[in-house]
Amino acid sequence: MNTEAQIKELVKEKYSQIAGQSKTQNESSCCGATGCCGDEVYNIMSDDYTSLAGYNHEADLGLGCGLPTVFARIKIGDTVIDLGSGAGNDCFVARSVTGETGKVIGIDFTEKMIEKARANAVKMGFNNVEFRLGDIDNMPVTSNKADVIVSNCVLNLVPNKHKVFSEIFRVLKPGAHFSISDIVLQGEFPAKWKEIAELYAGCVSGAIQKKEYLDIITEAGFILITLQKEKEIIIPAEILGNYLSEEEMALYKNSNTKIVSITVYAEKPAKDERNCCEPGNGCC
User: Fold this and answer.
1) CB contact set of 62 (below 8 Å; sequence gap of 6+)
2) pLDDT confidence bin for 152, thresholds 50/70/90
């Protein structure tokens, strides 16, 4: 069993490789890296950003599973934080809404992604979009900072999801909210999927059950939890065949198990009534 540190290192290594690839290369592989699924483009999880204001093709690596910025209720002048910001795609879309009076902060723990995002921001001439190197389960951001937090297909990669949502609660202003797109599971999946490194870095093996995911959000203290969008992810047989035997594939297809992309909204209460101690002391 890999430790949290080992899993993080695995994901960091994989996404450092992805940072050097084009969107087409990333989409042509189920795990976001070359040599995994052949040359045909499947475009399994990502949604189309190209019609959105602020879209920049150099910042779009095709790694998302939703359009959280579309659902995020961002306003002019807002401070928006994007968790796992990659090359900056969602940050630039968010900036098109916040305008020059707003502030957009992208957080990513992969140095090559941060370098790529910063270069893209310079090319676009944005002085109110910044990218910070750091873990999203220990954000380099002061408390009560953000009006809105977004994230696109990233939290499933983090081993300790309770800690991430606790950090989101800490960083949001009272009464502020998040909109997060992520991959969750419904039903029981083959145990071997949890052991496949390529699938982990490709968003599937790191995902948890949908109910557990929503329960974690509730436990963190959020209210008005709403599913804004939900879609089933259909993985082609050509990809499944790289990991599962024919018998296992048949069992999977005939079961009620699903890989699902969800976009979920929730708010931090205007008043924190959890009666717990200060963040960082281990009780919240």
Assistant:
1) 23, 24, 26, 27, 43, 46
2) very high
Given this model, what pLDDT does residue 32 score? Answer: 42
pLDDT in tens, 37-94: 333 333 566 778 888 888 888 887 777 889 999 999 999 999 999 999 999 999 999 9
Return phi, psi of residue 26, to 5°. Answer: -65, -40
- Report the chain's C-alpha Rg in angstroms: 18
Alpha-carbon distance of 177 to 174, in angstroms, equals: 9
Distances (CA, A) of 5 to 1, 111, 144: 11, 17, 28
Considering the entire predicted model, what is its pTM?
0.82
Task: Return the domain boundaries, the chain.
Answer: 4-267
* Cα–Cα distance, 208 to 222 (Å, whole number): 19
Does domain 4-267 fall into CATH 2.40.30.10?
no
The H-or-E segment that residue 83 falls in is strand 79-83
Instruction: Note whether 230 and 262 are within 8 A (CB).
Output: yes
Tell me the H-state helices in the chain.
Answer: 4-19, 23-27, 68-71, 89-98, 111-124, 161-171, 197-201, 210-219, 237-240, 246-253
Give the pLDDT mean for 229-245. 81
Is beta strand 146-152 parallel, antiparallel or unpaired with respect to 79-83? parallel
